[in-house]
Every structure is written in C-alpha cells, then in structure tokens.
Design goal:
There is one protein chain. The chain is mainly alpha-helical and 73 residues long. The protein has 3 helices and no strands. The chain starts with a helix and ends in a 14-residue tail after the last helix.
C-alpha cells in the first residue's frame, strides 16, 4: 500500500506507469473467487484487512481519499 502511494507521488511519472499495471495485474491474479484478497504477510489480520488494502491500492489513481486529493484540479 505505502509503496503504491510512493510510486503515485514520485516526481518521475515513469515509476507510476511501470508500477500500477504490474501491481494491478498481480492483485487481480491473486483475488479469491468471492472477490476478496487474503493478507499473505500475516493471516491473523484476516480477509477483510487484505481486501481493504487491495481495494485502496487499486483506487489510488482515482484520488477518492483526501490524502490523494492534494493538488487535484
């Protein structure tokens, strides 16, 4: 999640152009049949945690959350 934010905010847009498609495709490949994601780092956090972070990562370019809206036209 934080790496996604860093790539989005990097001054060189090429970081984002390479990062987002690879990250998106990886997340979609690992999505469960029910639409959720499991948190591979620590199963103790559960499915809701993994799904929440995956969805936030996928929505970064849409700038829905206030943290993403700085400088929004």
């Amino acid at each position: 999640y934080y790496a996604t934010l860093a790539m989005y905010q990097a001054k060189d847009p090429n970081y984002w152009k390479k990062w987002y498609p690879a990250m998106r495709d990886d997340l979609l490949r690992n999505q469960s049949a029910d639409g959720s994601w499991r948190n591979a780092e620590s199963a103790s956090y559960g499915q809701a945690f993994g799904t929440g972070f995956a969805l936030q990562m996928l929505q970064v370019p849409n700038r829905y959350l206030p943290i993403y809206q700085a400088g929004k036209d």
